[in-house]
Design a protein that fits this description.
This protein is α/β, with parallel strands linked by helices. The chain has two domains: about 350 residues, Alkaline Phosphatase, subunit A, CATH 3.40.720; about 90 residues, 2-Layer Sandwich (Arylsulfatase, C-terminal domain), CATH 3.30.1120.10. It is about 30% helix and about 15% strand. The protein has eleven helices and 14 strands. The strands form two sheets. Strands 6-5-4-3-7-1-8-9-2-10 form a ten-stranded mixed sheet, sandwiched between helices. Strands 11-12-13-14 form a four-stranded antiparallel sheet, with helices on one face. The radius of gyration is 22 Å and the shape is globular. The N terminus and C terminus are likely disordered.
Length: about 450
């Protein structure tokens, strides 16, 4: 009789297995690259970079063709991810300076890591922060249990000292590597160090649900490839330094690190119920491949804001799907909270949507998305650029000039149809005006400077 009961119990477990697995809260691994071009990886058409591990996510998950960063630069996009809202509401609309920027993303009870931590998740950020150099605005204050990485926008891959923007010199080198709120050091190439500490976090928290943000600084300048001898590691204080070969070497080392993380999930039998997300914080720089898009980072043309997005969650998302669903970085915030089964407090007003539900159903949700790129200080006129995407249409205002593109037919933005669709671009411009008024009104209520006052002359320091 006892044998029969054990047998029946085993059958019940086998039958309930998938349902029980679906009821478990997933682990979440968010991999965000830095300045990666839309067409830089194999699954997005790169002919020269070998990215088998990133491409594995495309084969085993969902690939979005029309996904956007919240902004054309780093700090604003990362603000949108942590808050789940347009970054203008937090007053971070251009990259934060390395050490002396008064702007900081202040902690909140509704920061994404805080909401996850309060729900019982172990939370970690390994890599780049760039949302405040002071400890009171650091990752731990936002709800990350563990932080290992750098607070500024760019560091030397070997010395881990702050890498400043072209034309900006520091009186002395500043080491920018922290474990939680204490300075630390490491001997290795930074991409490898980020990978190793991401593996350690997963190992440590494999028995409970965890959220890990893996924030590689690759492929951001300085363009220092891995395994360089000591006499080849120096770089010039210029964005134009480096070659495409250097860039590819940096990208491929990050891909190898992603492969290590994926294999660790396999070995720990966590793959099935781990949501893995791969994306970039903005479009690629001059060494990037943004094809078939036009222009690059620091602009609101497609090459500056459209980025790769891969999502793999085997128990919920069918593999090998390509979707034209339009999305934006803050949708990842909403998707992560939904996947974790977290209902935010009523005071939290997210502006992203959960993408996983529509992707499961093969449905397309209509979106209207907004961007604004502030003009440099002392520049005459309004914001340098504004953009709206609604359906397949994109309105772009570039230094006072109005453009309209059908992105389904013309993703490279080569055929401006503003002259023949005047009523449409004027309607979209009106939506942009209302959106600007709304986000700026909230910023003013919170005593945060709006675009013209908060502009940062160092647009490349991200």
């Amino acid at each position: 009789m006892r044998t029969l009961m054990v047998g029946l119990a085993l059958v019940a477990v086998a039958i309930a297995g998938p349902a029980a697995q679906r009821s478990q809260r997933p682990n979440i691994v968010m991999i965000i690259m830095d300045d990666l071009g839309y067409g830089d990886v194999g699954s997005y058409g790169a002919p020269d970079a070998k990215t088998p591990n990133i491409d594995r996510l495309a084969r085993e998950g969902v690939k979005l063709t029309d996904f956007y960063a919240n902004h054309a630069n780093c700090s604003p996009t990362r603000t949108g991810f942590i808050t789940g809202r347009y970054q203008q509401r937090s007053g971070i609309e251009s990259p934060l300076r390395a050490i002396d920027d008064p702007r900081q993303l202040l902690p909140s009870d509704t920061s994404l890591p805080r909401l996850l931590k309060d729900a019982g998740y172990a939370t970690g950020l390994i890599g780049k922060w760039h949302l405040g150099a002071r400890a009171e605005a650091g990752p731990n204050r936002h709800g990350f249990d563990e932080f290992w990485g750098f607070r500024s926008g760019a560091v030397d891959y070997y010395t881990h000292n702050v890498a400043t923007s072209p034309g900006v010199k520091l009186p002395a080198p500043i080491h920018d590597l922290y474990h939680n709120e204490e300075p630390t050091s490491a001997a290795g190439y930074l991409t490898d160090e980020i990978t190793a500490r991401s593996e350690a976090f997963i190992q440590q928290h494999s028995a409970a649900p965890f959220f890990l943000e893996v924030a590689y600084n690759a492929t951001h300048w300085p363009y220092q490839g891995p395994d360089l001898p000591d006499d080849k590691r120096a770089w010039t204080n210029s964005i134009e330094s480096g070659t495409r070969a250097d860039y590819i070497a940096m990208l491929e080392r990050a891909d190898q690190g992603i492969g290590r993380i994926l294999r660790l999930l396999d070995g720990l039998k966590l793959t099935a119920n781990t949501l893995v997300i791969f994306t970039s914080d903005n479009g690629g720089e001059w060494l990037s491949r943004n094809a078939p898009l036009f222009h690059r980072k620091s602009t609101l043309w497609e090459g500056g804001i459209r980025v790769p997005l891969l999502m793999r969650w085997p128990v919920h998302l069918k593999p090998g799907i390509t979707s034209s669903q339009v999305g934006i970085t803050m949708d990842l915030t909403a998707s992560i909270l939904a996947a974790a089964g977290i209902t935010p407090p009523a005071s939290y007003r997210p502006e992203g949507i959960d993408l996983i539900g529509p992707l499961q159903k093969g449905a397309i949700v209509d979106r209207t998305l907004f961007w604004r790129l502030p003009a440099p200080p002392n520049a005459p006129g309004p914001s340098a650029q504004r953009a709206v995407r609604r359906g397949n249409w994109k309105y772009l205002q570039d230094r006072g000039q109005n453009f309209l593109y059908d992105l389904r037919a013309d993703p490279g933005e080569r055929h401006d149809v503003a002259q023949s669709r005047i009523a449409l671009w004027q309607e979209l411009r009106g939506l942009a005006d209302k959106w600007e008024s709304d986000v700026d009104a909230e910023a003013r209520q919170r005593a945060i400077p709006t675009a013209s006052a908060a502009s940062d002359r160092r647009m490349r320091q991200d």
